[in-house]
Amino acid sequence: MTRYLPCLLALFSLTATAQEHGAHVHGAARLDVAIDGGTVTLLLDSPMDSLAGFEHRASSAKDKTTLKTLQAALQDAGKLFVLSEAAKCTLQTAKAESPLFEAAMDSHNHAGHSELEGEFVFQCNSPDKLDALTVNLFDIAANLQDLDVSLAGPRGQKATELSSASRTISF
Questions:
Q1: Which residue segment(s) compose the domain that 90 sits in?
Q2: For 18-70, what is each residue's pLDDT tens digit?
Q3: This prediction's pTM
Q4: What is 2-38 written as a DSSP string?
Q5: How many domains does the chain contain in total?
Q6: Contact yes or no for 26/115 (Cβ under 8 A)
């Protein structure tokens, strides 16, 4: 295992604990970034209201279209999460799960708060040139106002808050 693994595990453990005890805040989301050699892993946790604009089961054609568009955008995460061009990073995997995505395919009633959990993994050919991440999630998210970002990597740990006006975190 790498030398950063203990830091990454601690960061994600603290984040998970905080999220379990934290409030479900509309308009906000959380992004954890782990850099390990040439691999960049992004973990996104967000209320569906922040992304889709609602948290109820999609019954209208408009809501179903919104969910399909959101799912497609998350699968094309290389446009939503843009790493330093010089690092030559490519998206390896994109996973985004929400009860609302499943509800669009079944007949169960999903009431209450709905979350999205996403995991996006990039591989960088020149990780030494990796110095920033720009988050374009604000372009597709209906109600996202602020994104709390925690970063762990070879240059240490960092935390910041991004918004539609300030979308880039430097490493």
A1: 5-19+28-170
A2: 444 345 677 899 999 999 999 999 999 999 999 999 988 888 999 999 999 99
A3: 0.82
A4: -TTHHHHHHHHHHHHHHHHHS---TTEEEEEEEEETT
A5: 1
A6: no
